[in-house]
Design a protein that fits this description.
CATH class: Alpha Beta
Strand content: 5-15%
Mean pLDDT: 88
CATH architecture: 3-Layer(aba) Sandwich
Number of strands: 4
Helix content: 40-55%
CATH superfamily: VSR Endonuclease
Low-confidence stretches: none
Radius of gyration: 17 Å
Structural class: alpha+beta
Number of domains: 1
Shape: globular
CATH topology: Endonuclease, Chain A
């Protein structure tokens, strides 16, 4: 059973940021220090990538572990989980796949990074570098 009543749980969940999370701000600062220009929360592409290079058609998504299903197996093992959350997470994961497919069909390259991998001191540097490398790699021209 949830330790909070429905109203309190709803209030807690509403406070979770969907934009400019700590991980996103960390990445934005890192890229700016490296002199990499990008667009934040690019609305013209499916899924509004957290970081986008529209001319190169590159998109980076910084996915929250809970909201995008990284921990869904652990959540499903709990006896007291509300079915609403299972359904919500499954819909989020299906939406992510649809948006990813649409981006790829439109010629975009994608990189997905887990929020926790950016917050963890041990894995943050390699993931920040991975994002920078992805954004800076040469465009594959097909002629």
């Amino acid at each position: 059973m949830d330790i909070f009543d429905t109203e309190k749980r709803s209030d807690i969940m509403k406070r979770i940021k969907s934009k400019n999370s700590k991980s996103e701000l960390l990445v934005f600062r890192y890229l700016r220090r490296r002199g990499i220009y990008f667009q934040k929360h690019y609305k013209r592409a499916p899924g509004s990538p957290d970081i986008a290079l529209p001319r190169k058609k590159r998109a980076v998504f910084i996915d929250g572990d809970f909201w995008h299903g990284r921990t869904i197996d652990k959540i499903m093992q709990k006896d007291d989980i509300n079915p609403y959350w299972i359904e919500k997470l499954q819909k989020n994961m299906e939406r992510d796949k649809r948006q990813e497919k649409e981006l790829i069909e439109n010629g975009w390259e994608l990189l997905r990074i887990w929020d926790s991998d950016l917050r963890r001191k041990r894995t943050a540097p390699e993931n920040l570098e991975k994002i920078a490398d992805f954004l800076q790699k040469p465009v594959n021209d097909e002629f």
